[in-house]
Amino acid sequence: MQRFACDLIIDAAWVLPIAPENRALSAHSVCVTDGRIVALGPTPDVHGAWEARHRVSFEDGILTPGLVNAHTHAAMTLLRGVGEDLPLERWLRDCIWPLENALVNEDFVAAGTELAVAEMLRRGITTFTDMYFFPETTARVARAAGMRAVLAFPVFEGSTAWSRGVEDCFHLGLALHDACRGDPLVEVAFGPHAPYSVSMSTLEKINMYAQELGLGVHIHLHETAHEVAEARRLHGRSWVHVLGDIGLISPQLQAVHMTQLEDDEIRLLANHGASVIHCPNANMKLADGTCPLTRLVANGVNVAIGTDGAAANNSLDVLADARTAALLAKLQAGDPTVAAAPDMLARATLGGARALGREAQLGSVEPGKLADLVVFVPDSPAALPLYDPFAALLHTGSAFSVAASWVAGTQVVHAGQPRLLDETAMHAHVREQAQRVRAHR
Amino acid sequence: MQRFACDLIIDAAWVLPIAPENRALSAHSVCVTDGRIVALGPTPDVHGAWEARHRVSFEDGILTPGLVNAHTHAAMTLLRGVGEDLPLERWLRDCIWPLENALVNEDFVAAGTELAVAEMLRRGITTFTDMYFFPETTARVARAAGMRAVLAFPVFEGSTAWSRGVEDCFHLGLALHDACRGDPLVEVAFGPHAPYSVSMSTLEKINMYAQELGLGVHIHLHETAHEVAEARRLHGRSWVHVLGDIGLISPQLQAVHMTQLEDDEIRLLANHGASVIHCPNANMKLADGTCPLTRLVANGVNVAIGTDGAAANNSLDVLADARTAALLAKLQAGDPTVAAAPDMLARATLGGARALGREAQLGSVEPGKLADLVVFVPDSPAALPLYDPFAALLHTGSAFSVAASWVAGTQVVHAGQPRLLDETAMHAHVREQAQRVRAHR
What we know:
Two copies of one chain form a homodimer.
Chain A: E1 4-15, E2 25-33, E3 36-42, H1 43-49, E4 50-65, E5 67-72, H2 88-103, H3 106-122, E6 125-130, H4 135-145, E7 148-155, H5 165-180, E8 186-192, H6 200-213, E9 217-221, H7 225-235, H8 239-245, E10 253-257, H9 263-271, E11 275-278, H10 280-285, H11 293-298, E12 302-305, H12 318-333, H13 341-355, E13 373-378, H14 389-395, E14 400-407, E15 410-414, E16 417-418, H15 423-440
Parallel strand pairs in A: 1-4, 5-6, 6-7, 7-8, 9-10, 10-11, 11-12
Antiparallel strand pairs in A: 1-2, 2-3, 4-13, 13-14, 14-15, 15-16
Helix pairs in contact in A: 3-4, 3-15, 12-13, 13-14
């Protein structure tokens, strides 16, 4: 019998497809052609039906959809470990912001993003949403490394290293959007910093453009209790309601942090199909509060996982944040059955894809979807024995390394190393920028 | 000028001595002779004054005291990932206990402990306190690998795979204590499972023996709210007060978990010099509650860090638990300045040594102390840039690997590998036992 031709077959000890059924499939294989998944089945069946130009086998590997880091500030890897254990205000006003004002330029963003991309690829991430200055530089670095990136370009009222006021942010961001049209890897979203730092008229304008262009709106929201109290003082209601009134609570909204939420706010998010990006490690470290994962999910709100920037976390390991999210949810619910490992793997993949409005193409190992795939392999005694691949990745993720990953069928990690990134140059760039940081501390 | 002779000099980019001053020392060296630290100073000064038979240099290494895992059930690595996300009662009664009843024997404990020792050595741990069946087997495995271990031998009223009732526990445990007299690596403590599973008369007997022999008492205490409510129902007061009444709250007490604590209980612990072992990952995962780290420390109670067993955590990475402890303390205090990185490194080293009554000999890099030392080296982009070695180890610990470690001056990890453990044999033993587990699930 003649077999179908395909570009690549990947055999793995386990495949976690996430959807349509979220269960572990033993000894399965995935076929890829033209950057898309064309088949998934038991290894002997797949090899009986398909003939591949390339075949790779991971006899102790766990294959998953590429992970999605749904919120980061990639270049802030260069500020990892700066100003530790300070009060939030002092950390921002005396440490992070002055360093950013003095140091951020295109070279800083390029070096910091190269480091972030090297780190994220090694931890199984194939897509990230970034909110930082010089997003065109972030786009260039991500594209070169083969990663998928959503550039939520910052919108600030005042001047920044990158922009001179709101008009300039729109001008630069929409020019980037034009430049990215048809780009298979990079797209653009609006990244208003927060409702307290951007005017209502600017947010209304963002909403108008976002609706017209079909772009996402990525915003820090209800990060601290102080911020919510300020909204009540100024507007008589919380920011979620203020944004609801101008139409910003929509399927295009990616509301980041959300550590303070009342039931009526959760219903508003659910009714309008908005996504929440949960960044538990950064929220705990800065003592901001806890995003109510279990309540959000119970009400039908899509929750994705983000690492936040490395200045706050301090790593860009979305699996580690998914773990913290699970532990925190169990503790807060007083119930060890919530936030089960398969659900948390789904948040770090399909949840992220949904937040980006890309769930038809990304986030699961299903025929027809883009071949964004990762293979994790045991890399430490802590990975043994392997009874439950979901729990193994979620709770002992750091005991696994990424042997290989692909974005739209292009291999981006090979033999544990980013394949399209010049790491020697990256290290030199990071050393140079880190010296600038040290000189300004 | 003639230089003093010593066995070994270790040069490191950073030394974190923990005591007498808990700050990072750049480009320092440590001299070791006869298993003890004899000098610590800036690298050029040390080499000017000392001549070593061996010298090792880690130009990007961070040298710390060996980490102390103050509570685990080492052999339970074989049950890692079994019965995930179940309610506590079902997890124990339908899953863990039946598996233990069916499977635990000397071979199981040997294989599981070999795996645990391989895992712990790779994560910088040089001392662990274990509470499990067949502690003589655990002692043998730890000794062979060169690790320091405190065997808190279990005391149960009923029969176990290891013991036939309380008398037998005492008989076996005290025989092990006799066998370990003068052993440089292994010592014994009493390990009554919990106040609700051991009778008052047994606890009184344990207290008498422990005082007489100068041994530690290691007990699960106030792990769940249910347990404390039961004590109130049965005894009209909490277990901490019940134990206080029979004299068990003493400097020899290692009270494990302590997720439920009133102020008067904290004062009782402080006044009697007891230590608390905080196991945050396991407590969160099982939804037990949170040990009040900040309140305990403010009241002068020594708090050490434990991983608990791998069935509950799921790893034996005490640095990862120290990180979770820090994040949780910041969140609960609503204050990002508490549980600072240097304090948390101190809990995972000197705090553990104090809990064991060994703070005069272990837990810091000070001349006169035993040379239990670890060198961490960057092993991933997430370790860069390195501005703050405390934050780097605490918050991005999994980005570092252990290049080398020593116990009493004997090298136990070399080039990232346990030096005295046959890992090929270990893997075979683990595979064999894991097949038994799979057959019984």
